[in-house]
TrEMBL record:
Belongs to the glycosyltransferase 28 family. InterPro entries: Alg13-like, Cps14G-like, Glyco_trans_28_C. Residues 1-142 form the Glycosyl transferase family 28 C-terminal domain. PANTHER family: GLYCOSYL TRANSFERASE-RELATED, N-ACETYLGLUCOSAMINYLDIPHOSPHODOLICHOL N-ACETYLGLUCOSAMINYLTRANSFERASE. It comes from Fundicoccus ignavus. This is Glycosyl transferase. GO terms for molecular function: hexosyltransferase activity.
C-alpha cells in the first residue's frame, strides 16, 4: 500500500492529490493508494481517503505502507523514516498557496541530500519516482536521535 499524507494544517494540498489521481488514471501501480487529505478541497477519484486520522489510525497506515508520500512536515517525514519506510517528500510550496513559506522544501532538502528520502518538487517526475522507490530496497536507515524536548526545555529555562 502507498500511504499519502498531507498533514492537518489549514492549507490545502490539491496539487499532490490531483497528480496522484492522474497517475492512477495512466498507470496501474503495483500497490493500492490511501490518503489522508486534511484541508484539501480536491477530493480524489481514483483512491480511498479520509480527511483526518487519529494518531493510532495514522500509525497503522504508516506501518502497513510499503511507500509513504508525504508533505514536507518534519514530524511526518521523521516519523516515517524512523519506521524504516521508503519516503517521497513532496514539500508544500508557498507559490501554490500550500503554505506561508517554503520551509518544507528546506526540511525535505536536507533529508534528501543525506539520502534518507527522495524529494519531488516537479509533479511530472512523481510517477517515475514512485515506480523507482517501489522497485528498490531502502538503503539508508534513519537512526538520528531527537533533541526536540531538550531544545524546548533549554529555551524555557533561558527565558523564565
Amino acid at each position: 500500500m502507498i500511504f499519502v499524507c498531507v498533514g492537518s494544517r489549514e492549507y490545502q494540498f490539491d496539487r499532490l492529490l490531483k497528480e496522484m489521481d492522474n497517475i492512477l488514471e495512466r498507470t496501474k501501480l503495483p500497490e493500492s493508494v490511501f490518503a489522508q487529505i486534511g484541508q484539501s478541497t480536491y477530493l480524489p477519484q481514483n483512491f480511498e481517503f479520509e480527511r483526518f486520522l487519529s494518531q493510532d489510525e495514522f500509525e497503522k497506515y504508516q506501518n502497513e505502507a510499503k511507500l509513504i508520500i508525504s508533505h514536507g512536515g518534519t514530524g511526518a517525514l521523521v516519523g516515517a523514516l524512523k519506521k524504516n519506510k521508503k519516503v517521497i517528500a513532496v514539500p508544500r510550496l508557498a507559490k501554490f498557496g500550500e503554505h506561508i513559506d517554503d520551509h518544507q522544501l528546506q526540511v525535505s532538502g536536507v533529508l534528501s541530500k543525506e539520502k534518507y528520502l527522495v524529494t519531488v518538487t516537479d509533479m511530472d517526475t512523481l510517477e517515475n519516482q514512485i515506480l523507482l522507490m517501489l522497485a528498490n530496497e531502502t538503503t539508508k536507515k534513519y537512526n538520528k536521535p531527537s533533541y526536540v524536548f531538550e531544545i524546548i526545555d533549554g529555551f524555557i529555562r533561558e527565558n523564565i
